[in-house]
Amino acid sequence: MSGSTSNSDEHTSKKRESPASQRNKAYIWEVLKSHVFEPATKNDAVTVTTLVRVLEVAAGNGVHVDHFATQLESLLLQQQADDTSSSKQPPRSLLEWYPTDPDSESRDSIECYIHDGALASKGVQPPLSLTLDKSGIMEPETFSKLPSSHFTLISCINMIHISPWSATLGLFQLAAERLDPTNGYLYCYGPYKVGGTAVESNLNFDQNLQSRNPEWGVRDLETVVQAAQDAGLELVEQIDMPANNLSLLFRTRK
């Protein structure tokens, strides 16, 4: 019994909360659902039996994967149940979700969320270490563990402002190479400057970030969009979000 209690205590101590992620998860999910996953099923190249692959960059503590994967699996199962084709099969999980983060403590926390939410049964894979530089993924072992197939979604929430600019360039390079050219999206969320300025709270946040690390900071939206274009992507949606954040959706340029 004492060993079991010790394991439980260790598990609890590794699981982290994120009030900000708890606040924004429902808003972000609505964007992903309405702009990525529901429209995808209307594409002639996609059927209700098409596997959905998601790469989550900078996944943080695991709050988002817990919410998004649970919601997405329910959506995919419902789409299968609603299928009226003659070849209809019993509903089954059609999701592969790859959470990643460069921080080991964050990955430990993600593992706790996977365990507590039985997310492995929903298609969530063990968390991987993933660090980006301007060329893409820095860890060869992580690159080898990811599927060779394209991703339906690459998600990057609250990373661009709290990482070196080279990480953003690497993100766009990765997306250009690994997104499904027909049906894939890169989703970015966070604060941005527009026309060189922002609301006062984001300007103060920018100063705070740069005081902590001169390579960090709230980025100019125009610079971000241009870097994406240089990598072969195009911005297809820009959505205002609560707390002065933006949702950006990119696709590979046709």
Description:
The protein is globular. The chain has helices at residues 2-14, 19-40, 63-82, 104-116, 140-145, 165-178, 200-212, 221-230, and strands at residues 52-57, 95-99, 132-133, 136-137, 153-157, 185-190, 192-193, 219-220, 233-241, 245-252. With 254 residues, the chain is an alpha/beta fold. The N and C termini lie far apart (60 Å). It has a 6-stranded mixed beta sheet, with helices on both faces. The chain has a two-stranded antiparallel ribbon with strand order 3-4. The protein is built from 8 helices and 10 strands. Helix 6 links the parallel strand 5 and strand 6. The model has no long low-confidence stretch (mean pLDDT 91). Helix content is 44%, strand content 19%. The relative contact order is 0.14.
Low-confidence stretches: none
Give the ordered list of helices and strands.
HHEHEHEEHEHEEHEHEE
Count helical runs: 8
The end-to-end span amounts to 60 Å
Helix percentage range: 40-55%
Shape: globular
Structural class: alpha/beta
Roughly how many Å is the radius of gyration? 19 Å
Tally the beta strands. Answer: 10
Strand content: 15-25%
What number is the mean pLDDT? 91
Largest sheet: 6 strands, mixed
Strands in their spatial order, largest beta sheet? 2-1-5-6-10-9
Topology overview:
Elements: H1 2-14, H2 19-40, E1 52-57, H3 63-82, E2 95-99, H4 104-116, E3 132-133, E4 136-137, H5 140-145, E5 153-157, H6 165-178, E6 185-190, E7 192-193, H7 200-212, E8 219-220, H8 221-230, E9 233-241, E10 245-252
Parallel strand pairs: 1-2, 1-5, 5-6, 7-8
Antiparallel strand pairs: 3-4, 6-10, 9-10
Helix pairs in contact: 2-3
